[in-house]
Structure formats: C-alpha cells, structure tokens
Amino acid sequence: MGVAAVKGRVVGALRGRGHLLVVGFLINVCGGAIYAYSVFRKPLEALWGLSATQSGLPFLVFLTMFALGMALGGKPLESWGPRRTALLGGVLVGGGWLLAGFSPHLGALTLFYGVVAGLGVGLVYGCPLAVVSRWFPDRRGLALGLTVMGFGASPLLTAPLLGFLIARFGPLRTFSLLGAAFLGLLVLLALPLRYPPREGGEGSAARKRPERGAELGPRELLRTPGFYVLWAAFALGCLAGLMAIGIAAPFGQEVARLSAGLSALAVSVFAVFNGVGRPLFGWLTDRISPRNAGALSFALVLLAALLLYFLGSHPAVYFLGFCLLWLNLGGWLAIAPTATAALFGMKHYGKNYGIVFTAYGAGAVLGNVLSGLLRDLTGSYRAVFPWVMGLALVGAGLALWGLTPPREPVPARRG
Question: Which range of residues forms the domain containing residue 113?
C-alpha cells in the first residue's frame, strides 16, 4: 500500500471525529496538572511552616476526590450528556484552583484545591473518554490512550510553568492564575463534546464495527466476577506503579547516587514514558485483548522491580527500571477504560467506568502511604520492590484468569 493510500485511510478514519481526540487531550492536560503538585510543596512549607506530611495532604485529598468524582460522575454523564457534565466539572476545577489562591491556611487550601478541584477533575475526566469511546469503536483502545495521554504528559508543560509563576508571584497567586486559565479553557473545551448520531450522518461511519458482548448496567456489573477481577487488577497496577513512582527521585539520589538535578531531570524523562504508555497499551489492548495486555503489563512491572532491587545502584538500570514502571502505570489508565467497554458494553459506560475507576483512588492513596512507610521502617527504598514484585505476580494471575467477557448479561433481580 502506497503512502498516499495510507494517508487517505488515516484521514478517512479521523474525518468528523479527529478533533475530539485533540479536545480530550487538552482537557486532560488541564486535569493532569495535579501531577505537578510537588512544585508547590516546598514553597507552601516555607509559607506556612508545614511539615512534609502536611504539605502532601492536599495532594492525597485531591486523588481521593478525583476517584470519587469519577464514581459520582457516571449518572450526570448519562443524564445530562458529556457537554453539560464537562461544563460543571470545568467550573469546579477552575473555581477550586482560583479559590485556593485565597487560602489563609492549609485547611482552606485542602478544601478548595483537594475537595473542590479534585471533584471537578473526576467529573470532567470521564467526559472525553465516554465521547471518544463511542466515536472510535474501531480503534477504541488507541483513541482512549491518546486522550488520557494528556493527563500523563501534563507535568512536562505545567511543572515548568508553575515553577516560573511561583518564583515570580508566590504559590497562592499561582493557584489563582492557573485557576482563571483552567476555568476559561475547560469551559471552551467542553463545548464540542457530543456523542455520535445514532443513525445516518458522519457519526454512523464511526460505528461501522458493531458492539459485541454484554451490555451491563451498574447493578449487573457489581454481580459480575469480571468486574471484581478488573477492579483488583487496576488497583494492583496503580498500587505497584505508584509505590515505585513516588520514590523515583529519592531512589535515584540514595541508591543510584545521582545528583539532585539529574534525579529531577530523570523524573521528567519518566513522565514521557507515563504519557506514551497510554496510547501504546490502548493499541495493545485493541490488538491482543484486555486479558493479554494486562498480563503483559504486570510482567514488565515484575521485570522492572527485579532490576531495581538487585541492580538499581547502576544509573543505566535505574533509568530502564523506572521508565518501565512509569510506562506501565500510564498503560493501566488505557487498559482499564478499554477493558470496561470491551467486557461490559457501552450502554452504561459512564457509570460503569466511574465505579471501576475507584480502583485508581485506592491504589493511589495506598501506594503513596506504603512507599513512605516501608522507607521509614527499613531505612532503604529498595524495600519497596519485593512488595511490587508480589503485587505484579498477583496482578498477572488475576488478568490471565478473569479478564474475559461475561457469557451473557446478568439478569437483574425483581422485587
């Protein structure tokens, strides 16, 4: 096939729907600014005399509310549609950041940034996913991966910007400046979000592959063993990844003997892999099934943990191991939404993926807490990796055993 023919196929596949990938990517860039929160920690500690544990509280609350917002956002997404839900979420995100800039103390910052903005990101996050999953049934995994890549790649754009603004205006005014920008951007980006037409028009071409498998609602979902397997595998993937990712910079300094500057640069490199892992594993999930993509991800996590535990003092191994871990954490943010659609159908996708996404919240909170606890108990960051190995083995077994579609819809009970 010639270059012109390939180009024609790509253009034809994207016609009438390609802009939605750009919109979804940009929405996730705004939401993914949470991953650059560490830039605020030292300035906030200096401003209010906080400990390291205290300065991390808004981040942990944000992650918790992010997952809760996803779970709660399924109903308005189904009732109001993606545009109105994204508008509400965008107002909460922008408003939360904006109000955080007027915080007189840590409690107010945690409320505005952690609770309000975190809930808003949870609401807005699922909207472009629900849209592109319907517009791209023929390339769903890849489309979802490209959309959520914005979340993983966000720190590459937002961290330098935040650092510049904090140095010039201080941390609180920076919250307000970004809040005003996010409010305007997210409201504008919400406007193009819509589902494809059911019949006729350009949207019908995007639905050329018929949907297969069960179409389960939330009640049926919760009575399906496959849901619990997917939830547990997603939680384990996030837990294993975040336990390790949270210590990437200090591990580089303490174990691989890198300078502070090189360790910080390494985290930027790792963030690239976090972003790339999303479309890569989305594409793999399309090609080899959620079951095999999940098992492959855990196998790579196991390999990375083994390398870092035994050979992590070598700088080259350090870079390789953490690149793999960041790649696979990003991968699960594409495997999970693709698997939700493949295993349980699209009819109630917003509600279903909101429930599945609570696994991310569980993994994120436990991962951040456990990695620090293991370091404090043992005195070494190496102690994290035997736990990561065990989690990867359990996760691989779960993926191979249970990530398969239900044979038929589970009937709802009457009465």
Answer: 16-210
